[in-house]
Amino acid sequence: MAARIVVALACMVVMIRLSKAAIYKVGGSAGWTTIANVDYKLWASNKTFHIGDTVLFQYNPQFHNVMRVTHEMYRNCNNSKPISTFTTGNDSVTLTNHGHHFFFCGVPGHCQAGQKLDVNVIHPTSSTPLSDPPISSDSSSPSSPPSTTTIPAAGVPGPSPSHAASLPNVAAAVVALLVSYLFANFAY
Ligand SMILES: *[C@@H]1O[C@H](CO)[C@@H](O)[C@H](O)[C@H]1NC(C)=O
Ligand SMILES: *[C@@H]1O[C@H](CO)[C@@H](O)[C@H](O)[C@H]1NC(C)=O
Ligand SMILES: *[C@@H]1O[C@H](CO)[C@@H](O)[C@H](O)[C@H]1NC(C)=O
Ligand SMILES: [Cu+2]
């Protein structure tokens, strides 16, 4: 009995490890800027963002900032009423819901010059511990193949790739199985 509990706990630890959230440094090594001509659309296009992941904007706060905005404001580069504004130069935004998250630099002209980012978070996954995630500058979670989906223009969540075969879910299934097994043994 004790051995089975140990196995179940070990599986839970594995599951927690596999579902660790990622930190994405926006723009990779170039960061959040206008001078490197970073294509932020391209930067985002081969990443799969999950709830609990963090996007990290690193820039010189003398020259740039980060505004989270609506789709409408994003389209028009309208910085008059941002949802929130970040100005430290090392701003992390944790993605807590799925769908599109729109950002741009609020310094006049910068959004127009392409310093704008649309992060599309795919559908929610099961319980995700958020502690102590690793930094990854431009690669992503190990089990995600490059995304071939294009980001829709409308303010709706994009197509959600299936997670049925992802490792955290497999681990979760194993744990569920073990737990029900333990339960059956206790019950009778
Ligand atoms: C920007 O948005 C505000 C309200 O959100 C609106 O009043 C204003 O007309 C917009 N400006 C432009 C240039 O679209
Ligand atoms: C920037 O923020 C990240 C994430 O919050 C943190 O890990 C890192 O230490 C910070 N870097 C600096 C230079 O403050
Ligand atoms: C995305 O593209 C960059 C540069 O082409 C590459 O270094 C990175 O590994 C890619 N990420 C994924 C998840 O394919
Ligand atoms: Cu800027």
From TrEMBL:
InterPro entries: Cupredoxin, Phytocyanin-like, Phytocyanin_dom. Residues 1-21 form the signal peptide. This is Phytocyanin domain-containing protein. It comes from Brassica carinata. Residues 22-123 form the Phytocyanin domain. GO terms for molecular function: electron transfer activity; metal ion binding. Keywords: Copper, Glycoprotein, GPI-anchor, Lipoprotein, Membrane, Metal-binding, Signal. It comes from the Eukaryota. It holds the Pfam family Cu_bind_like. The keyword Signal applies. SUPFAM superfamilies: Cupredoxins. The lineage of its organism: Eukaryota, Viridiplantae, Streptophyta, Embryophyta, Tracheophyta. Residues 127-152 have a biased composition (Low complexity). Gene3D superfamilies: Cupredoxins - blue copper proteins. Residues 127-162 are annotated as: Disordered.
